[in-house]
Design a protein that fits this description.
alpha/beta; Aspartate Aminotransferase, domain 1; Aspartate Aminotransferase, domain 2; 2 domains; four-stranded antiparallel beta sheet; 13 helices; 17 strands; binds pyridoxal-5'-phosphate
């Protein structure tokens, strides 16, 4: 629908038109984002917040406008609730450290699910090691959706936090996070949402979900790499200690005592990525201009088409088949290794991801060495999917 805005999509790979279906890993950037970042470096680059000079003030203004843009995009009450980080991984690590320091003690429990990305497992494991807390895992049902009865049973007086993916980066399934949050809140338990795979595809509203924390990465929604967002309700962010020390996050420093800056700066030590935040602002403007509801509907239809077309090929196994998905479909071909299939797809210009997708517990549960994962973005078309299907049929023929 928007291919013309993405020059990279006109590239050739191994003599074929590039068919880019690895969007869950990272999305391509529209020209408006690339041009904006070049413009930033060429016309107003200067370090923010600390300068009285003109360029510094312009740069500061852009950075704070970007923060407001993000707040509006996810429905936050205030831009004070938006902390810029390096990405989803950084957001969750920061939260695990801060929340761990303030709210977790020996014997407390943290709940995650079986389908989490390593980014939403390992920081909590590290916290549990530090604090002698216990990590509990929501199991999956046969159909690879979360076992909600088991989830309810896992919520106890010891549970401090639930941290769960909104959309699985392997299965594409959309978890019932709103319901999960309500269940947790009924017991006074906080909930963090890993929205790395949902914010790019669905209209995510933090006040509607009522989540306490939420993370996502700019590079998965047409923005630059190295930038992410940690949303937190003001009342919780106020209570948490900073995870990192340095410039920007302080009010006053002396060798006797240092006091911290107000929200959100308390959590942003060092020079922030103010060029990246400008890029993200332009990316969100781009998505908004294209129409979020229109994109959501288009991508949902494309995902169904993708799953149906793959399912029509003999010996193709779809994971979480028939479940509503957001942009991502994982599959395998019976008796073939996903790496071999993925390599032959690449030879035909088709980029999909193969492997464990940073979700080893889930892949172990599926009892496979990995999967092939095709994931769509707003610029993909049915022709891209037809190209994948044709390439896959050829790969199967060559390998069988
Ligand atoms: N969580 C989920 C669900 C993801 O899909 C990813 C990336 O694929 C991450 C977290 C980590 O994101 P990043 O590598 O941008 O920090």
């Amino acid at each position: 629908m928007y291919e013309q805005d993405f020059d990279i999509l006109r590239e050739q790979v191994h003599g074929h038109r590039l068919v880019y279906l690895d969007n869950a890993a990272t999305t391509q950037k529209p020209k408006v984002v690339l041009d904006a970042m070049t413009e930033a470096y060429t016309t107003w680059n200067a370090n923010i917040h600390r300068g009285v000079h003109h360029l510094s003030q312009v740069a500061t203004q852009h950075h704070e406008q970007a923060r407001q843009r993000v707040a509006d995009f996810i429905g936050a009450k205030s831009s004070k609730e938006i902390v810029f980080t390096k990405g989803t991984t950084d957001s969750i690590n920061m939260l695990a450290f801060s929340l761990g320091e303030a709210m977790v003690k020996e014997g407390d429990e943290i709940v995650v699910s079986y389908m989490e990305h390593h980014s939403n497992i390992v920081p909590w494991q590290m916290l549990c090691d530090r604090k002698k807390a216990v990590l509990k895992v929501i199991p999956l049902r046969e159909d690879l959706t979360l076992d909600m009865e088991a989830y309810k049973a896992l919520l106890t007086d010891k549970t401090r936090l639930v941290s769960v993916a909104h959309v699985s980066n392997v299965l594409g399934v959309i978890n019932p996070v709103k319901e999960m949050i309500a269940l947790a809140h009924a017991r006074g338990i906080l909930v963090a949402v890993d929205a790395a795979q949902s914010v790019p595809h669905l209209r995510v509203d933090v006040q509607d979900l009522d989540c306490d924390f939420l993370s996502f990465s700019a590079h998965k929604i047409y923005g630059p790499t190295g930038l992410g967002v940690l949303y937190g309700k003001e009342e919780w962010l106020d209570q948490l200690p900073p995870a990192e020390g340095g410039g920007e996050m302080i009010e006053h420093v002396s060798f006797d005592k240092t006091t911290y800056n107000t929200l959100p700066y308390k959590f942003e030590a060092g020079t922030p990525d103010f060029i990246g935040s400008f890029g993200l602002q332009k990316a969100l403007d781009y998505v908004e201009m294209a129409g979020r509801d229109k994109i959501e509907k288009y991508e949902a239809e494309l995902t169904v088409y993708l799953e149906n077309q793959l399912a029509s090929i003999p010996n193709v196994i779809i994971y979480a088949a028939g479940q509503r998905k957001a942009g991502v479909v994982s599959f395998n071909v019976e008796h073939l290794h996903p790496f071999d299939v993925g390599t032959l797809l690449d030879q035909q210009g088709v980029a999909v991801r193969t492997g464990h997708h940073c979700a080893e517990p889930l892949i172990d549960k599926l009892q496979v060495p990995g999967t092939l994962r095709a994931s769509v973005a707003m610029y993909n078309t049915k022709e891209d999917i037809d190209a994948l299907v044709a390439a896959l049929k050829k790969a199967i023929m060559m390998l069988s």
